[in-house]
Design brief:
mainly alpha, 2 domains, 7 helices, 48% helix, elongated
């Protein structure tokens, strides 16, 4: 598979998982915008806390960080380092003292790529969960099996019959026949 096909597959996987179009494009192509300066001092020079004049969003982000036990003192908020579908992620507050290392660590944690002052390569995307047969969660299968055992077997069934029933129920619920 060539690089373009891999990026396209990754983009589609992200969109199916609910990532916004803009973030999916950014993540699939593997580039973080604004991470290209040489030192932590230069990197943080002239940078605001990530919110500009938006005091409402600043207040929300600080409240969520404090609720999670994260200090915002001496840190800058990088919205591009939020986990997907996690606005105001407390982990997106990056310290001024070690910003490049923290950004690199966060990019690696989220499998984001960055190039410039921080260089991080994106790992190969996980296998697409939509490829292959659908598998119903064990908890849901067990709930259905328990209902069938109560309804059709008066709560009594041998372990062998239960194992067969679990297998048949998982297949029926998955619709993979």
């Amino acid at each position: 598979m060539n690089e373009v096909d891999a990026k396209t597959r990754h983009y589609r996987l992200l969109r199916r998982r609910g990532v916004s179009e803009e973030n999916a494009r950014r993540l699939a192509t593997g580039y973080m915008i604004g991470i290209g300066l040489q030192t932590d001092t230069a990197f943080n020079a002239g940078r605001d806390d990530g919110f500009g004049d938006d005091d409402f969003k600043r207040k929300i982000a600080r409240q969520r960080a404090h609720a999670a036990g994260v200090s915002t003192s001496g840190k800058t908020y990088y919205p591009g380092l939020c986990a997907p579908r996690t606005p105001y992620d407390p982990k997106a507050w990056i310290s001024h003292d070690n910003s490049r290392a923290e950004i690199k660590r966060r990019c690696e944690e989220l499998n984001y790529a960055a190039e410039g002052g921080v260089t991080v390569k994106q790992r190969e995307p996980e296998t697409d969960p939509f490829e292959g047969p659908y598998r119903v969660a064990d908890k849901l299968v067990q709930r259905e099996v328990n209902a069938v055992v109560e309804r059709e077997h008066d709560g009594q069934i041998t372990p062998e019959k239960r194992a067969d029933l679990v297998e048949a129920t998982a297949e029926r619920l998955a619709g993979n026949q």
